[in-house]
Amino acid sequence: ALGQSETLSALSIMNSPRVSDDGISHLRNLKLQRLMLYATPCNDAALQHLANMTSLRTLALTGAGITDQGLEHLKGLKVLRSLYLHATSVSEEGLAALRRELPNLRSTRR
């Protein structure tokens, strides 16, 4: 199963209305360095499943129902360098709070 792969380092999911917050939980044990979720119905609840993915360097949540509250789950991802939040509800203030915890993070909100 995908959630048990030991060699997968990158995963992109695009335009998939069937990817749910619970579905993302199956990815939490992967050692992904790059996770790209484009136009999925995921929201803040999905991010709690990503909190243990400490090898993530790049994360895209484009078009997801992500808010400032969801970003709290990402504060422990110390190697995260790139975060793409196009078409989300994340505010500049929420992004600034995350950057204080992850000073090497480059991010784009729009």
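That was protein one. Protein two is written in the same sequence-then-structure order:
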Amino acid sequence: INITGDAAKGLTITKVGLQNNSAKTISAVKFRWFLFRQDAPKKILNKGETSVIGLEDLPAGSEQVVEYPIVTFASIYQPFVKDNKLTGKFVIEVAVSEIQYAGGASWKRGE
């Protein structure tokens, strides 16, 4: 739904809005993030994944904002600095990579 970053925290992705489009209640999620240049979205420069994040149950058809430090740009940009300058426009994309449903079932996104 939406993603919020916090410049005061090193450009950290701090909030992610979720919408449950399934017919099951979600109890936990895991996020995967990707860093790429805006002009080359198919060339992933860096990627990572959170641990499993427990939720207040998210019933079918409902929405919830997850507050969790997904990734901090300030901790991943250094390899792209040349001559003490960071040039270019970078994008961090966040996606759900795993869902755990109430009752024990789960779903995982493929690579």
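The mean pLDDT is 91. Keep this in mind for the problem set.
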